[in-house]
Amino acid sequence: MLNKLKKQLHQIPVSGIRAFNEEAAAVPDCISLTLGEPAFDTPKDIKKALKQALDHNHTHYAAAMGDLDLRRKIAVYEWKNHHLLYDADEIMVCAGAADALSTALAALIDPGDEIIVPTPAYPQYEAIIKLEGGRFIPLNTQDHEFQISREELEHVFSDKTKAILLNSPNNPSGCIYDQASLTLIHDFVKDKQIFVLCDDVYDRLVYDDSYNSFMQFQDLRSQLLAVKSFSKPYAMTGWRLGYLLADKKILAEIMKIHQYRFSCVNTFVQKAGIKALEIDPTEMLTVYKKHRDLAVGRLREMGLPINQPAGAFYVFPNIEEFGMDSVSFCKRMLHEARVACVPGSYFHAEGYIRISTCGSTRQLIEGLNRIEAFIYELRKSDRQL
């Protein structure tokens, strides 16, 4: 009966990141630097708000759009922090960013539509696009310092292009699109009937003042959608809480899908989300920045080419000098040095590896020590050939 399942399923591999993490779990004494899972506990005030919500019996269905108090709080938060003016009826609460992303793409894609995605890119994008019957169209940025090239953009654009999906700060590179890249995209799409979907889940985890989201271009409001998440800035990865911003008329159509696919997000989790928006993530951000500086410094001492990330909590060094593909490199490092990282090929960026820096400081230092020892042995063996 397998041949009776949805045809697109045969195009979708098992998540390489999860598979690699499971393989690492079977290696004794392995240091895993694979997942974007913060070492921090969820702040106490957020957990307290959840307990209070349960005590007040907030355990029944919520509105399909999401708890009204939470949506109003998000509206204030977005204006205060990002100068985005979206009313409560232009905000849809979702079960994490993945739900927001998949629902948005389901609303955008007709069979055969093309979605342009700058690479390197989070693997989930390609999977969701294909499951909806669309075509994932990679847009190379690694040859342009992880910025957008007009020549590359014009090359991949076609009359089947439905949307451009932007992730900044980027997973896996940690780079942010500079104002020149954002303006280039704005000028390219402003006279075209295509959407720009902004995956802004790391927008609170930036390390300098140069960050701007494409959402700044409100002259394109009817073409804009933004995915946001509570997972990363508040260490709430297991809570599954996020939201989608879009113009009222667009969101009303998207809601037709969400109400049937998901019904509603846990009511008590939404109540805790109200408290989360009052939490200042600066303490976590300070630690992530120290980890970034530590990792970049150590990797450069090892002689690995690397761009300094401006956001998120990953580093993305180049390993092309070793003459092997990224999967082979990571598998050897896993079993010989007992440290796990993610192959760049999973992100459409062969020749790189992704190292997560959001774990504990002790774990990161030990992981980097093992990477250094592994690289030393590789170079030593190359010299002996």
Describe this structure in words.
- With 385 residues, the chain is of the alpha/beta class.
- The protein has helices spanning 16-25, 44-55, 68-82, 96-108, 123-131, 150-156, 179-189, 248-261, 267-276, 282-301, 326-337, 361-384; strands at 31-32, 91-94, 114-119, 135-140, 161-167, 195-199, 224-229, 242-246, 314-315, 339-340, 342-343, 353-356.
- It folds into 2 domains: 2-41 and 281-384, Aspartate Aminotransferase, domain 1 (Alpha-Beta Complex); 44-276, Aspartate Aminotransferase, domain 2 (3-Layer(aba) Sandwich).
- The chain has 12 helices and 12 strands.
- The strands form 3 sheets. A 7-stranded mixed beta sheet has the order 2-8-7-6-5-3-4, sandwiched between helices.
- The chain starts with 15 loop residues before the first helix and ends with a helix.
Task: Write the SSE topology.
Layout lengths: L15 H10 L5 E2 L11 H12 L12 H15 L8 E4 L1 H13 L5 E6 L3 H9 L3 E6 L9 H7 L4 E7 L11 H11 L5 E5 L24 E6 L12 E5 L1 H14 L5 H10 L5 H20 L12 E2 L10 H12 L1 E2 L1 E2 L9 E4 L4 H24 L1
Parallel strand pairs: 1-10, 3-4, 3-5, 5-6, 6-7
Antiparallel strand pairs: 2-8, 7-8, 9-12, 11-12
Helix pairs in contact: 2-9, 3-9, 4-5, 4-8, 10-12
CATH top level label of the largest domain? Alpha Beta
Q: State the total count of DSSP E strands.
A: 12
Mean pLDDT, as a whole number? 95
The dominant shape is: globular
The value of Rg in angstroms is: 21 Å
**Major β-sheet strand ordering:** 2-8-7-6-5-3-4
For the sheet with most strands, the description reads: 7 strands, mixed
The secondary-structure element order is HEHHEHEHEHEHEEEHHHEHEEEH
How far apart the termini lie comes to: 52 Å
Uncertain ranges: none
Determine the number of helices (DSSP H or I, runs of at least 4 residues).
12
Which strand-content bin applies to the residues?
Answer: 5-15%
Percent helix, as a range, is 40-55%
